[in-house]
Write a structure and sequence with these properties.
This protein is of the alpha/beta class. The protein has two domains: about 15-155 and about 395-544, FAD/NAD(P)-binding domain; about 165-385, no CATH class. It contains 16 helices and 20 strands. The strands form five sheets. Strands 1, 2, 3, 4, 5, 6, 17 and 18 form an eight-stranded mixed beta sheet that branches. Strands 7-16-8-9-12 form a five-stranded parallel beta sheet, covered by helices on one side. It has a three-stranded antiparallel beta sheet with strand order 13-14-15, with no helix packed on it. It is globular and about 70 Å long. The structure holds ligand NA7. Ligand NA7 binds near residues 194, 198 and 364. Ligand NA7 binds near residues 154, 197, 198, 219 and 390.
């Protein structure tokens, strides 16, 4: 487990001038640091947490687990590393992932260039020197030619403004900043707000411990059983025998992820065949359900079959018909919000110590009181409240830094109408700045670790190119950025996901511009764009 923040704050490391400053020591930031160092660039990573891991450092709530298979949701840049590490479960738990990231940072001695417990407050581009002036919350002034953000897509929390919060006498826990010590809910009356991945993963485990658990649900989600299990030595050995082959196959797939996927239309088969296919994907478990047919998230007719299937599944599991009905998504488009991969989620609602409260109505949750929650005119007494209310996704962690590019333009202004960028990596007006695995790239729609690696390698190549040519700055042109924005928007139009509310379009954050942020055109097409740009001498960038 990561180092805890007991005792004095992590020391301030010496040095104030670097080739690159990397923000964040999660999967992407760590690999960026490794790569920069290997290529002979001086680099410093700045990390707010007292340990490595990024989102996996903070999100340590009960049940936290990845929804991508562990043997693919890990680095591939080092063959010995991927051969040596032994994943225990098909879908790794947060402690296992954190242990892995800790192992990587130790194996490559990365910590010595990471300044922990420090936040980047501001980054200002100095047009005369062609470098970034970076200020931290510990009073440091650092400078670097390149400013590279690995700040994560799901790391800036979006807590609801609940009236009366200050009056509540119980304890409040947030899934995104869970205490490091075990929280004991034994015998307590616990409330959970939020039924996205975090809530769905935490609820069954909290229910086992709590005296009574009340879930306040605004929107029912599609929850597919993860079918998690221990990995057998035979399947691990089979993957390791051709790990490179598996990675190469993943690169040819839209989500950079090998799983059972069918490309035929849900409309092209009989009712029985369709039902059997859904059943088979359900048994396979997890996000693979999306691969049942090729048109589930593009064709409304195909999408509707899922709603019926889910209704039957839920009513087959949940005994109380009213609870089953509340849990059933009705008008929600399947796949609009991220499909949730859970363990024993629907089964948990058969417990005696459980209540499900619908807060989808006008007033929703009215307020917190001294002793609990008031919703729908009723009081629900609580000793503890768990918030699992999600994130200001994809842009939140970027725009909370005071970033100023050419002419003092802020990133908040530049992104007022959405996170414009070129191939997801760079923003016009912000020379020598790169953003890892964020909006404009496949990122959250694909294997985030592998996407991060591709970004890191692309940026590294670009920096080497600049060093060899003696270039001072690289900046996406306005034209290239506009054209890429059109490509991202055109790809989004083909998916039902762009037309409904979710964090993918920013609708969960008040006032946020509504734009489908990730690139849904598929990883192979995306990578081809990136490679073409590089092969043509960084076409679409102005090099000075
Ligand atoms: P999500 O998926 O954004 O889920 C947040 C949940 O919180 C969702 O059910 C929301 O309901 C609910 N919510 C948010 N605000 C409120 C208020 N004010 N009242 C009631 N309910 C509320 O976040 P997660 O952390 O679960 O998962 C994020 C990603 O991390 C996930 O997609 C995986 O990629 C990993 P809503 O649906 O908006 O009605």
């Amino acid at each position: 487990m990561a180092a805890e923040s007991s005792g004095p704050r992590s020391p301030i490391l010496p040095g104030s001038r670097f080739d690159a400053i990397v923000v964040g020591a999660g999967f992407a930031g760590l690999y960026m640091l490794y790569r920069l160092r290997k290529l002979g660039f001086s680099a410093r990573a700045i990390e707010a947490a007292p340990g490595v891991g990024g989102t996996w450092f903070w999100n340590r709530y009960p049940g936290a687990r990845c929804d991508f298979e562990s043997m693919q949701y890990c680095y591939q840049f080092d063959e010995a590393l991927q051969q040596d590490w032994e994943w225990k479960e098909r879908f790794a738990s947060q402690p296992e992932i954190l242990a892995y990231i800790e192992h990587v940072s130790g194996r490559f001695d990365l910590r010595r260039d990471i300044q922990f417990e420090t936040r980047v407050r501001s980054a200002t581009f100095d047009e005369t020197a062609n470098e970034w002036a970076v200020e931290t919350d510990r009073g440091q002034s650092l400078r670097a030619q390149f400013f590279i953000m690995g700040v994560g897509c799901l790391s800036s929390a979006n807590p609801p403004a609940l009236p009366g919060a200050e009056a509540f006498g119980g304890k409040v826990y947030c899934t995104w900043k869970w205490p490091h010590e075990k929280v004991d809910f034994s015998g307590q009356r616990v409330g959970v707000i939020g039924t996205g991945s975090s809530g769905v993963q935490a609820i069954p485990l909290i229910a086992e411990e709590a005296g009574h658990l009340t879930v306040f649900q605004r929107t029912p989600n599609y929850v597919v059983p993860a079918q998690n299990r221990a990995l057998s030595p035979e399947e691990v050995a089979a993957i390791k025998a051709d790990y490179r082959g598996l990675r190469a196959r993943a690169r040819q797939l839209p989500n950079l992820y090998v799983f059972s996927r069918h490309t035929d239309s849900a409309l092209s088969v009989s009712d029985e065949e369709r039902r059997a296919r859904f059943e088979a994907q359900w048994v396979l478990g997890g996000l693979q359900f999306l691969g049942a047919f090729g048109d589930l998230t593009t064709n409304p007719e195909a999408n509707k079959f899922i709603t019926q299937f889910w209704r039957e599944k839920i009513s087959g599991i949940v005994k109380n018909p009213m609870t089953a009905d509340l849990l059933t998504p009705k008008d929600e488009i399947f796949g609009c919000k991220r499909l949730v991969s859970g363990n024993d989620y629907y089964e948990t609602f058969n417990r005696a110590n459980f209540s499900l409260v619908d807060v989808s109505g006008e007033g929703g949750i009215e307020r917190l009181t001294a002793s609990g929650i008031r919703a729908g005119g009723q009081d629900y007494p609580l000793d503890a409240l768990v918030l699992a209310t999600g994130f200001d996704a994809m842009t939140g962690s970027v725009v909370r830094i005071d970033i100023r590019g050419r002419g003092g333009v802020t990133i908040q202004d530049a992104w007022r109408d959405g996170p414009g960028n070129f191939i997801g990596l760079a923003v016009h007006g912000f020379p020598n700045m790169f953003n890892l695995a964020g909006p404009g790239g496949p990122s959250v729609l694909a294997n985030m670790v592998a996407c991060g690696e591709q970004h890191v390698e692309w940026i590294s190549d670009c920096l080497v190119f600049m060093r060899e040519k003696g270039l001072a700055s690289v900046e996406a042109t306005a034209e290239a950025q506009k054209a890429w924005g059109e490509e991202v928007a055109a790809a989004a139009k083909t998916s039902l996901r762009s037309a409904c509310n979710s964090w993918y379009v920013g609708s969960n954050v008040e006032g946020k511009a509504r734009v489908f942020m990730p690139y849904i055109g598929g990883f192979p097409r995306y990578e081809a764009f990136c490679n073409r740009v590089a092969a043509e001498g960084y076409e679409g960038f102005e090099l000075r």
